[in-house]
Amino acid sequence: MINNIKTIGIVGGGQLGKMMILDAKRLGFRIAVLDPAKDCPCHAISDEHIVKGFDDLDGYLELAKKSDVITYEFEHINVAHLEELVKRGHTIYPSVASLKVIQDKLWQKEALSKAGIAVPKFEAAKNIDDLYAYYDRTQKPFFLKSRRDGYDGKGNYMVRDRADIAKGYERLIGKGAKQDTSDRLMIEELAHFEKEVSVIATRGQDGECVIYPIAENVHKNSILDTTVVPAAVSKKIVGKIMDIAKQVMECFGGVGTFCAELFVNEKRGEVMVNEVAPRVHNTGHYTIEAVRTSQFENHIRAIAGLGLGSTEMVVGASIMKNIIGGDGQDGVVAYTGIEQAYKISGVNVHIYGKNEVKEGRKMGHMTMTGKSVKDVWGKLDKVNVETTVRSKNG
Amino acid sequence: MINNIKTIGIVGGGQLGKMMILDAKRLGFRIAVLDPAKDCPCHAISDEHIVKGFDDLDGYLELAKKSDVITYEFEHINVAHLEELVKRGHTIYPSVASLKVIQDKLWQKEALSKAGIAVPKFEAAKNIDDLYAYYDRTQKPFFLKSRRDGYDGKGNYMVRDRADIAKGYERLIGKGAKQDTSDRLMIEELAHFEKEVSVIATRGQDGECVIYPIAENVHKNSILDTTVVPAAVSKKIVGKIMDIAKQVMECFGGVGTFCAELFVNEKRGEVMVNEVAPRVHNTGHYTIEAVRTSQFENHIRAIAGLGLGSTEMVVGASIMKNIIGGDGQDGVVAYTGIEQAYKISGVNVHIYGKNEVKEGRKMGHMTMTGKSVKDVWGKLDKVNVETTVRSKNG
Prior knowledge:
Low-confidence stretches of chain A: none
Shape of chain A: globular
Largest interface: A-B, 43 and 43 residues
Number of helices of chain A: 12
Oligomer: homodimer
Strand content of chain A: 25-35%
Radius of gyration of chain A: 21 Å
Distance between the termini of chain A: 45 Å
């Protein structure tokens, strides 16, 4: 509808896709989604839903046929199939070349490092002997990481001592693995940091780059729990992070919204990139209510070749809290606390529309906005939206 | 999903419904829509679309069956069918009783008048003789209005002199009408005013009422062209309008978002209600970008029994400009000027997704936001999004 782009194709039908679509629809775009789940969060708000698996080339071809530009809402997708689409002349943002590098944590860190961006020390590990050799050399605990497909802490194992190495190797590779593991693992030092923060940036097709206010993140069980904005870091660190955000976008030639998760060590004045995601990000959900233009709208504007919107905050502070499936939960979901939440001014509840709750599954989030971080924490103290199991599976 | 309400049913699938749905989806609701047009703006973003006419009781019954609460996005719907739903125990907001009164401009003015709210002088006209009698008595031009189904100036006729009466009567009733016209027409004095403004208010099920900043409206060919917020009226007038907004909501016992269009005469310090709409309104579109909580979100929160959000502005000023089908346009639509519009910070373009443009048809709107009204007019000077016909019909 807008300029020469009528339909946006999205690989993945989860909550990130849903929030993209809600902004894309205001702008007048048609939407096609590829996702194997019939009842995924994007299903009801898409013009077309291709119900095919993420490893099925036919699904990608069908999506491409219906779309003027293709994007994705998660990064663990079949790059070979995307490359096939590029070969056939389809347009994909962010670029498949950068996705391919980012998908592999080793290649990602190598690219960042090469671009002069600080990252924790890392090296490849081709086999278990490399792990023993690293430990014997350094005598220090380290992170053992799967190079691919990790999320929410899955694929990471903290090796505390020499005896942990075999356990970690088995956890990430599988018991008595016979296959070649030479491109599957990497080693990363344990970085010393006080704060985990993230920065969202969007880059247009013309190279215009906008950067969002820095978010401070707290994880529970390796899953994001809360994001506080603005992050409590010094001006000097803010400046460093803004520079890093630009460097990251240029390093990957990103078009669209990206997120860089960072470790901050104020004492040493150090900032290191932990991970880059070539997509809209959970730590940027606060931008829907708290910023003039959300990370989702700017993503759509970027991939459609439109100018980008202001990333200025419209409130003093904001906290985002995830609504996550509780211990042992497995079944049809219900929610408690929503009515109470809406009694407090400056609270918004987002429910993604997933039918079933599972332990650790992201089911929704709340965004609190107000004058100051203290003010917003006060609001969060009064709200408690939780999942419950309405009826069990099986 | 939220509290005991899972699915919201909407009568009407146009742009007002679409903007309601985009906010309702964030909150996690399922959506069912009743609209005879297969490709209406709500189609692609609804969980269920019942493609049936607005006079077909079956459609209403099907909608009710799928919905936990029912609302509507335009007011010219079949009240008898809605009454049937109420009889069968379904919940409809705003109430059918108030809709019934508001649908009839005579009854609406009588209700407002009875509640002590100032309106232009009016009276019923049972036949053409009543019109002649009125003119002979007053010797003044007047508005001849259809009591029902008018919108965008349709159904209104300005009688300038005695000779105009027969013309106006024929225009509104039809040539040589034989049917009983005794409940179809009303007379209204020409009010003296300097400004047309409107005020949007939302009332919750518990009586909580929030009122939006006052909007100043300019019509072209009886169709809304621009809305400027804040309206340039004195503090005294603002106070009067806020009082009127509350009175209107209480007069109709409204639950949901309503709009009152008003005439302002600053010299006399007078405010009169021109018309009330029991729904979200074109003059409230600016609330999406310019206000903390949009008129659409608050409507959904009200009908779902949730607390209402702040109506505080997040910018200094805003102008909304409609994108309307131009002279003689009739065919498949395309747009010009969108890329240019997005180059200017603080401009948002909404495209409703209607396939065909017709002269006078509302196809989209732009919202400009900035520090001051002057600043925002400056932005509007630089943007010009227009419809064109891509291919003709027929």
